């Protein structure tokens, strides 16, 4: 029997917090990193946190599969797969920026059903399960409150976020990104998954990621959908395997997609 979504959500949140506590042991230190094949850095803490998550998951659910950023895929015998990013925002983590997160997503039969975004240095998390809503766990509060997007419908009064403005500007959607930033009230690089968390909790309206791996996007569709917003790739397709990502409060989604698509390199004229 497959575990119910509420159980998976609770376990995922507990695991994210445990892995997050491990990351805090070295957060703020001067860390050495190795370069991966894609040029992104990886620290010993990334590897240790993912190893911890894998041990805990497979001890509790030995038949589940696991896909992680650092160790790749371990297939399971059951139709459940955990998707892990032990430190999303390693560059921020290495520089003592507290906006990095621990990400856990769970797929059942290939469909995302659970997502957790945990920001260890800030002490806040959003945990969601399909059909059960999204919970915002805030520092200093014993009980969570509902995580909900805001109701802003005017792009000119909205905050637009991204992880790396230069990367967004130089992406295939670069011209559209520039148009989007001109239309918005403010643009900030409160990036990586923390930007998506801000949208899911109503503190920002738009988060654009032109490049996302499955472990970067693992929790995002579930979290944003259950918070009342939308998450798609930059082609407008819902899912976590599209290679890019757009989180919005839902009301602005089509307008933002149209702006991004209008400036896409190679788009039909």
Essential attributes:
2 domains, D-Maltodextrin-Binding Protein, domain 2, 269 residues, Fructose-1,6-Bisphosphatase, Chain A, domain 1
Give the secondary structure arrangement, pairings included:
Layout: H1 5-24, E1 34-35, E2 41-42, H2 44-60, E3 65-68, E4 72-74, E5 80-88, H3 90-94, E6 101-108, E7 111-119, E8 124-129, E9 133-137, E10 145-146, E11 159-162, H4 165-170, H5 174-183, E12 186-188, H6 193-200, E13 206-209, H7 214-217, H8 220-226, E14 230-232, E15 245-248, H9 253-262
Parallel strand pairs: 3-5, 11-12, 11-13
Antiparallel strand pairs: 1-2, 3-4, 5-6, 6-7, 7-8, 8-9, 9-10, 13-15, 14-15
Helix pairs in contact: 1-2, 5-9
Structure description:
The protein is an alpha+beta fold and 269 residues long. It folds into two domains: 5-146, Fructose-1,6-Bisphosphatase, subunit A, domain 1 (Fructose-1,6-Bisphosphatase, Chain A, domain 1, 2-Layer Sandwich), CATH 3.30.540.10; 155-262, D-Maltodextrin-Binding Protein, domain 2 (3-Layer(aba) Sandwich). The chain has nine helices and 15 strands. It has an eight-stranded mixed beta sheet with strand order 4-3-5-6-7-8-9-10, with helices on both faces. Strand 3 (65-68) and strand 4 (72-74) form a beta hairpin. Helix 5 crosses helix 9. The longest helix is centred in the first third of the chain and has 20 residues, at 5-24. It starts with a helix and ends in a 7-residue tail after the last helix. The mean pLDDT is 94.
């Amino acid at each position: 029997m497959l575990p119910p979504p509420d159980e998976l959500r609770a376990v995922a949140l507990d695991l994210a917090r445990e892995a997050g506590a491990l990351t805090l042991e070295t957060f703020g230190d001067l860390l050495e990193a190795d370069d991966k094949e894609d040029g992104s850095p990886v620290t010993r803490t990334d590897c240790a946190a993912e190893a911890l998550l894998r041990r805990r998951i497979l001890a509790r659910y030995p038949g589940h599969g696991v896909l992680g950023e650092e160790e790749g895929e371990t297939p399971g015998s059951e139709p459940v797969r955990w998707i892990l990013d032990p430190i999303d925002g390693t560059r921020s983590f290495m520089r003592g920026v507290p906006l990095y997160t621990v990400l856990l997503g769970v797929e059942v039969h290939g469909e995302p059903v659970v997502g957790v975004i945990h920001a260890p240095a800030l002490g806040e998390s959003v945990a969601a399960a399909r059909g059960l809503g999204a919970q915002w766990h805030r520092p200093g509060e014993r009980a969570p409150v509902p995580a909900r997007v805001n109701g802003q419908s005017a792009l000119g009064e909205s905050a637009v976020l991204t992880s790396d403005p230069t990367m967004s500007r130089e992406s295939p959607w670069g011209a559209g990104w520039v148009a989007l930033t001109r239309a918005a009230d403010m643009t900030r690089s409160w990036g990586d998954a923390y930007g998506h968390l801000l949208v899911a909790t109503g503190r920002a309206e738009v988060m654009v990621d032109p490049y996302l791996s499955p472990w970067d996007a693992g929790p995002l569709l579930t979290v944003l959908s259950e918070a009342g917003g939308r998450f798609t790739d930059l082609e407008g397709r819902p899912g976590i395997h599209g290679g890019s990502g757009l989180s919005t409060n839902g009301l602005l989604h089509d307008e933002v997609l149209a702006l991004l698509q209008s400036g896409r390199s190679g788009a039909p004229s």
